[in-house]
């Protein structure tokens, strides 16, 4: 309906229905309400199906309510119930039930209950609320929608709330009191998945905090690839992109709860590169403080049929971490932890 909701504009109590279908060589943001939001959305509802394809050479963002959320924007009590689909893209793409990209701003008490589907092999981040989050605050948001990445993507991260966190703002990025109740459909080429966040990625320049979040949906990944990271809250946390960033910030996972089983089943017959699974965190390669979290699932399991130099690891709280400083304080695991492998002497 709108190209841009400017900083001094507000949409209030607006509902849209129907279908929005667009293929463009130039537009990079697609949504039911606005391509970009700089101002305010309050009690806005999207019921329209969003179907997009991009042949341009720049990043593509697709969301139910907004393509992009910019600095100063505020979304409060908004809802998406229209399916979001990206058929193809020529460059990196990010998708979310609420927005494809969040640069900064605030998203509070918003929800998604529709399916988000990528058919593009360029999709790097899919989230129930936000595809790519580079700053700002998510607060008390809920996802009930199913997330469906394409089997053709080669570098995708999926999260029940945010697919891809990459803090570029040099200030605190927060995901607070959010709940995932939506299913993740696992394909054979995903890189990582988490009940709340798929990946906290490299090239971050400020701290990120995931606080009081809850995953209510089972995560069962049956894959054939040789590298994959799965966590009840966060799938993967990568190394800082620059050595100068080490020691400058710490990522926090605090007082979160995973309530459902986490299982990673790899059926590859080639040499395994890295498989990690954890009730809270799959793998941490950056600086992390994991405190006060609870894994309340019945089980965390990892099964590997690979061959060669097997390096699979599973933990009730975290599958693997190797960086300093790393702090684990006051976490509780109540799940049975099981690892099985077909490789002799590698149990």
Task: Summarize this structure as a short list of keywords or feature phrases.
347 residues; mainly beta; ten-stranded parallel beta sheet; 0% helix; 52% strand; globular
Q: Please, could you describe this protein's structure?
A:
The structure is a single chain. This protein is mostly beta strands and 347 residues long. The protein contains no helices and 48 strands. The strands form six sheets. A ten-stranded parallel β-sheet has the order 1-6-11-16-21-26-30-35-40-45, with no helix packed on it. The chain is globular and about 60 Å long. The protein starts with a strand and ends in a 6-residue tail after the last strand. The mean pLDDT is 90.
Shape by Cα distribution: globular
How many separate helices? 0
Strand content: over 45%
Main sheet? Answer: 10 strands, parallel
Span from first to last CA? 57 Å
Order of strands, main sheet, comes to 1-6-11-16-21-26-30-35-40-45
Give the low-confidence spans.
none
What proportion of the residues is helical, as a percent range? under 10%
Number of strands: 48
Global mean pLDDT: 90
Structural class: mainly beta
